[in-house]
Amino acid sequence: MILVIVVKIIIQLYTWITLPIYFLLQQPWKNRYGNDRKRIRTYRKSSTIEMTDIYVRDDNGDYDYPIFEKSTLTEMFDDLIRIYPPDRHCLGYRKILGEQIIDTNSNCKKLEKKYRLSSYKWLTYQDVDQISRNLSQGLLAKGLLKSDRCLIFAETRIEWMICFRALLRLGTPIVTCYANMGHDGVKHGIFETNVQMIITSLNCLPILENVLNSLPSTMKHSVKHIIYMDDYRQPKSLGNFQSEIDISSLSSVGELGKKIREDGKELPYPEPRTDDPLIIMYTSGTTGQPKAALMTQRQIIQSIRALFTIIRNVRDTGAEHTYIAFLPLAHIMELTLEIFLSLFGVRLGYSSPQTLMDRAPGLASGQKSDVCLLKPTIMTTVPLVLERILKQIGEHIQTNSTPLFHQIFDYLIDYKAKWTRRGYQSPLITRFISKKIQEKFGGRLQLILCGGAALDPIVESKIRSALNVKLLAGYGATETTGAIFCQDFFGLDYGFVGAPMGEIYLQLRNWNDGGYTVRDQPNPRGEILVGGDIICIEYFHNSSLTSEAFFTDPKTGIRWFQTGDIGELYPNGFLKIIDRRKDLIKLQNGEYISLGKIEASLKRSRYIENICVYGHIMSDYLVALIVPDRKWLKNLSDDLAKSNNNNIQDLCNDIHIERLIFEDVQQIAKQSGLSRKEIPKRIRLISDVWSVETGILTSAMKMKRNVIEKLYRQQLSDLYSDSNNNLG
């Protein structure tokens, strides 16, 4: 402790001695001006005290770029082979060379696949154009019409985007489902959208077989064709589908189309139109049956225009950038970003969470990770992934250094974050610490875009500092066709989702039940309403939900989406998400509690992998279900001399371990500024894995609260029973 204090004193002395020099050289007031300048203006005055004025972005800039002269995505993509040279890289992938199947618990109940992979192989813009045209002709020859619908049901991979480009040319509406959506969700999507064709992967083929073969005789599906993406090995069996379903490989359909074109028998394409239905995208919703948002080309193009106002510099620097694509393409954030970046010349390298980072679970011994080979400059992620990255950085420092250095490292990262917020740079910390951490991500990473859920400001500040990157947190939804708010390159503060993006309308509305009003001081607060051409058309075949969530103002003609999220609007136009109507509960004593805010705070504990806070309507206190971080759980077990027992279930049931984690939760809660009513009074450790695969997290890594409450009904009941007094 003495050494740590001495080091801190030396750093503070150095700071105050060199501060005048840094002040003159770095001119931090310019950076602070860039952060504080106002980014919005009033578009229309409010006619009621219940709502703010309608605001729009004040620095849209111009859209004088050739791409924006086109009215459809088809025309935009067709223009790329003219804009970019023939050898310009467009899409990249790693070919699977082989796999190892490893028994992880010696009794054949749990098997893991480890892959041997090639280096990245690249298709040029010319290659992608020709392959997608071949595929389009092959699909036409298979009988696919503009009036049909085609489901893409596969993991994120290069074939997904090529199929998207091919279907775009045909004008056939594209239905998307997450590869891990599960039996019931996929069944719902197939029947609700009445798809005629499904493009899938071999991994997803068994799910389709199960869905289509488990139907009662009274139910009839419309599927006529299934096309599977080729794998590195030939499948032993394609399953047992009904005889009337035609099953083909993607490569054979592409070859069919290629031959048609070579023979000069190319079939005509339908004329693309801006307002034709383009995508029916199922949301990764946290409650109930998945909803499908219907979008036209107009909404996707509007999303591209909105992104342009934030990351317009790629217009001139696209050739210098590489994007690593690993989030689900069935998620609107990933899809719109990939379209945007590809249009502006950024090459996209496809990856998977199984092979993304060093020590990823899908890498065979001796294999290099995707980030190591690709060396990306841009990546998109969700808050949960950033939380895990931050924990891994901490674990790496703790394992490979002394306790003294670990404490100094934490101090220096916080030090850099503090001075960055004031408009300064920290070149010494960047050179000797951040650069070393950057090497784990390929050494070239410049920009991280984050969305999908609320990002903890502490995680945000530490990631920015540790990696020395621009981390732009944003906000959007499937219903808004992707991001509608985003931080920009001049933002210095943490905890915000930025200002409205280009051509998007913002308004806040009182939510009196939650205690939020647009007259609050110092800043207006209320439910976030967003409007503009970017808002989706409807929830597909669901008029009641559509009328609940959307409305069109007859005075302005603006179409609005009621987000259900609560925001606070700051003078510079930046928005902070402070609550969510669905996350707010009312306890027996009449107090409202924000569960999401509490969970975000408590996740800072090193012992917590995930947490669900719960409050019973007939109680006046909260409880929590905690999925512990397994590494730290075992470390705690070793400290308590329980190292002979590594069974996760037994460790979670251990009263002494539970007590220590409960005490840590109390400490973290107080450090986070939570009030007494917001701190869980009892906890229960859960040994289960909460993941997308187990159905507890959505594909956007959000928690399905209703699923958890149903699955752990007994444990929650026990936490409120008189007999459960282990934590008091």
TrEMBL record:
Mind telling me which GO cellular component terms the entry cites?
Answer: endoplasmic reticulum; lipid droplet; plasma membrane
Q: What's its catalytic activity?
A: a long-chain fatty acid + ATP + CoA = a long-chain fatty acyl-CoA + AMP + diphosphate
Q: Could you tell me the EC number(s) of this protein?
A: 6.2.1.3
Task: Name the UniProt key words of this record, in alphabetical order.
Answer: ATP-binding, Fatty acid metabolism, Ligase, Lipid metabolism, Membrane, Nucleotide-binding, Transmembrane, Transmembrane helix
Q: What is this protein called?
A: long-chain-fatty-acid--CoA ligase
Annotated InterPro entries: AMP-binding_CS (IPR020845), AMP-dep_synth/lig_dom (IPR000873), ANL_N_sf (IPR042099)
Q: Which residue intervals define the domain AMP-dependent synthetase/ligase in the entry?
A: 117-539
Gene symbol of the encoding locus: LOC113796824
One GO biological process term is:
long-chain fatty-acyl-CoA metabolic process
Task: List where the protein spans the membrane.
Answer: 6-25
Q: Which GO terms describe its molecular function?
A: ATP binding; palmitoyl-CoA ligase activity
Member of which family? Belongs to the ATP-dependent AMP-binding enzyme family.
